[in-house]
Design goal:
Largest sheet of chain C: 6 strands, parallel
Order of helices and strands of chain C: HHHEHEHEHHEHEHEHH
Radius of gyration of chain B: 27 Å
Strand content of chain C: 5-15%
Largest sheet of chain B: none
Strand content of chain B: under 5%
Distance between the termini of chain C: 23 Å
CATH class of the largest domain in chain C: Alpha Beta
Oligomer: heterotetramer
Number of strands of chain B: 0
Distance between the termini of chain B: 16 Å
Number of domains of chain C: 2
Order of helices and strands of chain B: HHHHHH
Number of strands of chain C: 6
CATH architecture of the largest domain in chain C: 3-Layer(aba) Sandwich
Radius of gyration of chain C: 23 Å
CATH superfamily of the largest domain in chain C: Glycogen Phosphorylase B
Structural class of chain C: alpha/beta
Number of helices of chain B: 6
Chain lengths: 257, 201, 277, 207
């Protein structure tokens, strides 16, 4: 009944599901510790600097909708923005969050408002904090560049999915001498972020950072579960390569089922 | 110089956009808004024609009444415009697109981007390149372990992984320069060949 | 030393103007630097040269006008090659701008005698992204009940006997983003797949070439130039290669300038600090 | 009800697509095609949604006499001109083709080409060999950049070979590991959405 050639895929899918559920279950009794992520630690420094300078911080959860395959980095970005918003609320620092897609707007507003509530400063929340720009790439880019330049922001937090606008944002941040913290899963933008920003979270690091901040057992547990799956893949490749050197191709053959 | 009105419009628009490199100005802002409007209008036109060919025609000409379900879901997307109390209606079509999209994506991600990649990495250690590919992949993979206790072996492996990631990014950077220059060549070709006929070859 | 430090302080607008000049001059007066053929292009060309007259291929137009200068030259070179060899082309698009782009590239061939519906057709655009891709790869006519010009697709002669991708001889996609979606949705269907991607996406597509999921990979203007050469029809992409070379040299020089100034400044700062101690 | 229905829809749709792919049950394949076509139709509606949101926002700018009202007016005018040309006169009408060829094409490619200038200035300003790893990025970048341009052969015949090797060996290893790792991540998120554990896409948070 199963389609030939896809059995290994189905088994892998189930394995990843089981490891993830194991991770989540374990997280309800003990939360996993996530290794240090430099970009995340820098956020406090960035907000602190903005407070000293009396200038705002700029955040954007990237150029992506939540109904596509790039939804995951957007959600991770929202967690990071929540964290930055709590710090901003705590230190009474102004914050501007630019949004590209209509679906992301209400979520972000909810997240930022919640951050102010959690800091006991609900009355300080300014409804103009979260700005909707446009899902059109260049309109979104132009709007963000405009905010960075006009407000002379002290820090930029560029997290989520980005396309060619990444380099423009990194350049604009440098032009106003802002501390820039970036993070994306988009492999072609990462070289620019890595070179042009002060701190960069690479690929899955962004998701792990998001989970870490959320302190949500489900997400943290899922990160641990995914680590189990990665470990299995790691061991499979290693053992497979050793066996294949010795002339046994079982590990490769099983994957073709 | 070209005598074609269209080319002139295109050339002036290009100049307006590039003028942003020197400073933001009214000419740039005007062109940006015209462009965004036209691009959005364009997507409405194409969306409309899809709705006609996949919704209206099957329904009216083909009498396929099951099409009413997705049409109803499509209309629910606009429910919030009737009042915020209808916001929840939008969740149904969104959850449908997300469900189908997630299903279609992961069922093939697991095969094409997981199983087949594992299989292609299982290489015998019989050449320097193979050794680098296998061990390099493993080192980078270990960089993405987040919750394991940082033993010495893991730290070393992750550090090697970081180096390989940097080389990978270097390759991406080289290609990015190349691609971006091609894009600029395209614009220069338009301006100096089609507009002012300086490039003759 | 001051001169070396100043190398890092050149105004970026000077850089912009230089960049335009460096690209423009070789386009006006070409140098003619020889272009070697990479193994990527050779592999893709070998795959396409196996096609026989009368075979049908699908060309998916997954790029927008903004990425066109890098990707379109490949599409042009491949169209010229395939139409000359009487291979039939079906164009499809999941990008709203795709069908207009395809229509423009097809027009010259229609004017020179290729027949719409028999030698080629343009199925137009379908919303839904990857979902639409998965759907049309398995059933073209059901996903596209009408083509771009409003014909009912089931009546088009070129589509007779074709249900999905496996009924065609090759699947070529042109994209200004990554190859992943195509590999995901068409990868396990029985059809050779050639990816023509924007140069930036080349490194990311490398694992698919190594594993054989892609039968060929063409990347940007450089691959277009190589393809023009292997098919003996040098055109626009070949002409642009001199500019490409000089552009790379200019950027390299500026990176080197930036670094020299950085190291001179740093060594001065270090020396200064030692002096204070 | 308002909470459960969307979750059930996601779960049923997602699991159906997965089952269909891995099993050879004749009826399933046909059902999956139908569902995909439904999703395409809903997506076509959604395409207009973003544009309508945009129009609504700019309309508000005009009625509120916002400082950008003139720009908003331009945006709406060009949007309506395009819609009228495309819907009432057809996509092959001269006006529609003119807008595509002479507004959308030059602006789109000019905006994108602007990234080339930013890239050049970022390369000049930011690409510093500050550490060993930054140097690795920089040197690989330069080798690939020069090696892939025709001039690479003239500089040194070995340069293109090195560029190719860097692309095919270390880059392959790095990209493959990133791909495997992100595949696991993507599957994890999607499975959580399909099983209803994660509901953030519906704006409900998880429970």
């Amino acid at each position: 009944m199963l389609v030939a050639g896809r059995v290994a895929g189905l088994v892998s899918l189930l394995t990843i599901f089981i490891t993830m559920m194991l991770g989540i279950r374990r997280a309800h009794t003990s939360l996993p510790t996530i290794r240090r992520i430099a970009g995340l630690e820098a956020i406090e420094e960035a907000v602190g600097r903005a407070t000293e300078m009396g200038k705002p911080i700029f955040c954007t959860p990237g150029w992506s909708d939540i109904t596509t395959s790039t939804a995951a980095p957007t959600f991770a970005a929202l967690d990071i923005i929540y964290y930055a918003a709590r710090l901003a609320a705590r230190y009474d620092t102004e914050m501007i969050v630019a949004i590209a897609y209509p679906n992301v707007y209400p979520l972000t507003e909810q997240v930022v408002r919640q951050a102010y509530v959690m800091e006991g400063k609900a009355d300080r929340y300014n409804p103009g904090t979260v700005v909707f720009t446009s899902p059109e790439q260049y309109a979104y880019t132009a709007a963000c560049l405009g905010i960075i330049q006009r407000e002379k922001v002290a820090a930029t937090i560029l997290v989520g999915h980005f396309a060619s606008e990444a380099i423009n944002f990194a350049e604009a941040s440098a032009a106003v001498n802002a501390i820039s913290i970036s993070g994306t899963e988009s492999t072609y933008q990462l070289p620019f972020f890595t070179a042009a920003c002060d701190y960069t979270m690479i690929g899955e690091e962004l998701m792990a950072a998001g989970a870490y901040i959320s302190e949500d057992p489900m997400r943290l547990g899922a990160i641990r579960g995914q680590d189990y799956a990665k470990l299995l893949a790691f061991l499979w490749i290693l053992t497979g390569a050793i066996c294949s050197t010795a002339g046994f191709n079982w590990f490769e053959a099983i994957l073709n089922f | 110089m070209s005598t074609d009105v269209g080319i002139w419009v295109g050339a002036l628009m290009t100049i307006a956009v590039f003028s942003y490199l020197f400073s933001e100005n009214e000419f740039y802002k005007a062109v940006e808004h015209i462009y965004v409007g036209a691009a959005a209008g364009y997507s409405i036109v194409l969306g409309f024609s899809n709705v006609v060919t996949k919704g209206w025609q099957p329904l009216v000409e083909g009498r396929q009444f099951q099409v009413l379900i997705p049409v109803a879901m499509g209309l629910m997307l606009f429910a919030p415009y009737a009042g915020t109390q209808y916001n929840w209606m939008r969740r149904i079509p969104i959850s449908f697109i997300v469900g189908i999209g997630a299903g279609i994506t992961i069922r093939s991600v697991v095969i094409e981007q997981f199983v087949k990649q594992l299989s292609a990495t299982i290489l015998p250690f019989n050449s320097v390149n193979n050794v680098i590919i296998v061990l390099g992949t493993l080192a980078v993979l270990s960089y993405f372990f987040f919750t394991f206790k940082p033993s010495r072996a893991l730290k070393t492996s992750a550090e090697v992984g970081k180096w390989i990631i940097m080389i990978t990014f270097g390759a991406s950077f080289g290609n990015a320069v190349m691609g971006r220059i091609s894009l600029l060549i395209g614009r220069i070709d338009f301006m100096f060949r089609e507009w002012i006929h300086l490039i003759k070859l | 030393m001051d001169v070396l430090m100043k190398l890092g302080d050149i105004d970026k607008r000077v850089l912009y103007v230089l960049l335009v000049l460096v690209l423009l001059i070789p386009m006006v007066r070409p140098i003619g630097i020889r272009i070697s053929i990479s193994h990527w292009t050779t592999k893709a060309y070998e795959q396409l040269s196996r096609l026989e007259p009368g075979d049908t291929v699908i060309c998916d137009f997954g790029y927008n006008v903004d990425g066109a200068p890098d990707v379109e030259p490949i599409a042009k070179a491949i169209f010229r090659d395939l139409f000359d060899r009487n291979i039939k082309i079906i164009t499809v698009s999941l990008n709203a701008q795709g069908p207009m782009i395809a229509e423009k590239l097809l027009l010259p061939y229609e004017e020179s005698g290729k027949v719409y519906g028999t030698d080629f057709c343009n199925l137009g655009f379908m919303a839904g992204g990857e979902t639409a891709l998965a759907a049309y790869a398995r059933d073209l006519k059901r996903t596209f009940p009408r083509d771009w010009r409003g014909n009912t697709t089931s009546t088009l002669p070129i589509l007779q006997g074709i249900t999905g991708a496996p009924d065609t001889k090759a699947w070529i996609f042109f994209t200004d983003s990554s190859a992943e979606a195509w590999v995901r949705q068409v990868g396990d269907l029985d059809v050779p797949m050639i990816g023509a991607v924007i140069t930036v996406a080349a490194p990311q597509a490398e694992p698919f070439v190594h594993s054989g999921q892609l039968s060929g990979l063409l990347t940007g203007l450089r691959s277009a130039a190589e393809y023009e050469i292997v098919t003996n029809r040098p055109g626009g992409a070949v002409a642009a290669m001199d500019a490409q070379s000089l552009g790379h040299i200019l950027i390299t020089i500026f990176i080197v300038f930036g670094n020299i100034s950085y190291f001179v400044k740093r060594s001065k700062e270090l020396a200064g600090r030692e002096g204070v101690q | 009800m308002k909470r459960e229905v969307p979750i059930i829809v996601t779960t049923v749709a997602g699991i159906f697509m997965i089952l269909e792919y891995f099993h050879n049950i004749p009826g399933l394949a046909n059902g999956a095609k139908e569902l995909q076509n439904w999703a395409i139709l809903v997506a076509a509606f959604a395409l207009a949604l973003a544009a309508i949101n945009l129009a609504a926002r700019h309309l508000r700018n005009i009625t509120a006499r916002h400082q950008n009202a003139v720009h908003s007016g331009l945006l709406l005018a060009s949007m309506f001109a395009t819609v009228i040309a495309g819907i009432f006169f057809g996509t092959d009408a001269r006006a529609f083709v003119f807008i595509f060829d002479n507004i959308i094409t030059p602006c789109g490619s000019a905006f994108y080409a602007m990234a080339c200038f930013h890239l050049a200035s970022a390369a000049y300003r930011a690409f510093r060999a500050q550490s060993g790893q930054a140097a690795a990025l920089l040197i690989t970048g330069i080798i690939v950049m020069l090696g892939r341009a025709p001039i690479g052969d003239l500089i040194h015949p070995y340069l293109p070979k090195m560029a190719t090797w860097l692309m095919q060996v270390p880059n392959l290893a790095g990209m493959r590991a990133i791909m495997i790792s992100s595949a696991i991540g993507m599957i994890g998120v999607s499975l959580r959405i399909i099983t209803g554990i994660d509901r953030t896409h519906l704006g409900m948070g998880q429970e």
